[in-house]
Structure formats: structure tokens, C-alpha cells
Please model this.
Amino acid sequence: MQTHQAQIEIVLDKRLTSADQVTSTRLLEAMRYATLGGGKRLRALLVYATGQALGATNRAMDAAAAAVEMIHAYSLVHDDMPVMDDDDLRRGRPTCHKAYDEATALLVGDALQSMAFESLCDSALTAEQQSAMVKRLAQASGVFGMAGGQAVDLESVGKKLDLNALQSMHKLKTGALIRASVVLGALSAEHCDEETLLHLERYADCIGLAFQVQDDVLDVIADTETLGKTQGADIALNKPTYPALLGLEKAQQKAVALIEKALGQLAELPFNTEALGALAQFVVKRSH
Model:
């Protein structure tokens, strides 16, 4: 984890370095502020763990890892804005719109989203890989993925959702990009057969949902300093959560059960999945 966390910081830093054609140094500075120097980098780690297991090259994985992290960073910038969740703190620092301004934060998200797809045009990837990755990431980011899930989340404030509705929402909002990270890692390799990809996608679906369950749990039991964001924010906004629906203990049990299912999918694969297994465990053992 430490090796690849350091690697993705280097990759992102290079992609977000000023060039002669940059027209606004303030915008680039804000993009760097929102993207660098913090975060678990889980999505990038999933790209690297999956790609390495299948024999992908470092440069191919770097392109995919940078893309998913930029999409994730853009989503957090927009999610924190007053028109969405109106948060003041992210990764232990003022949110982007607080450190800069709302218009700049809006443009930061727009620019990071564009740069993510530019990253997938790296010459280390074949035309077939680029096309497949762009399609997968676009689907995971759009109306049938993250953006669609965020819309449902906003529409659900103050409402009571049953378990199926809550899981469907989070499969889009959180799970889609986590699944895309695993898929892009697989597509970084020269070959990944359909059966292998199916097991990897099922693994990703399980850890994506477990990640959100654990997020909801931490919103209840952790403090603001540990989380790096405002503790109790979901409760304050009257959002539907797993602890609210199931109770804290059952929500924690659900997260563990999902990780066990994820590990079961890895057991079906004929190659070393130790890193993917460790990341699955990390999802429920993390403190922030």
C-alpha cells in the first residue's frame, strides 16, 4: 500500500504540473490542492493490485490509477460544495471551495474530470484498451453510476429507504467507481478473460458496498480529527444510512459479511490475489 500510495502521488503530481499552455495558475493550484497530499488512494490501489496480479505494466496501471483518482477527487470537490453537502472540511483541511471559492471549485471538478479521460489516452495503452477503459470509466461516473447515485442521495434526504433501495443507491454513488477501478486494473493487462473479470467485478461490488457501510459506521463512532471531515455530517443532513436502518452492530456485521463474500470471489481465481484480499480487509478495518 505504501509503495503504490507513493507512486500515485508522483503520477498525479506530474500530470498536474504547470505547462506553458496553462491559462490560469490559480485553477491548476486549486486542482493540485484538491487532488494531492491526502486520501487513502483506495481506488488507485485497486488498479495496481488488480493489474499486477494480471501482469500489467507500471505505465499502463499509472494511466488508469490517475484517471480513477481524478474522478474521485472531482466528485469530492463538487460533493462538498454548498449546493450539495455543504462541508467545510476534507482530509483534515478546508474544502476546496473554502480554500479558494465556489466558482473555482466548480471548475476544479470540471477540469479534473476532463483530465481523467486524457490520462487514459496514454500511449502505454493500446487503442482497444483506451476505448474499453474510457467506456467503463464514463459509465461509472455518469447517470448510471456515481452522478446518478449522488442524485438519488440528494433526493433521499429526510426519507426512509429500505435496505434494497439504500444498497441500490450506494452501488451507484460509491460502488460504481470502485468497480471501475478493479476493471481498469484488469484492462491494463494484455489479457483478462470473461470469467476472471466476472469474479473481479463481484469482488468489487462487495467491497464497494462494504466501503459505504463502513463509512456510515465511522460517521457515528469516529471523531472529526480522525476522519479528516466533519463527524456526524450524514446524521445532521438527515440522510439514510446503514446504522440508522439496521442499527450500529448489525451494520458492522454486514460490512464484515460483505468482505467475506469478496474473499470468496478471489478464491475462485487462479493467480495471486493476496494484495486484493488485503485491500478488502482494509475496507472494514480502516479508521477513516
The beta strands are 89-90, 93-94. The first strand starts at residue 89 and ends at 90.
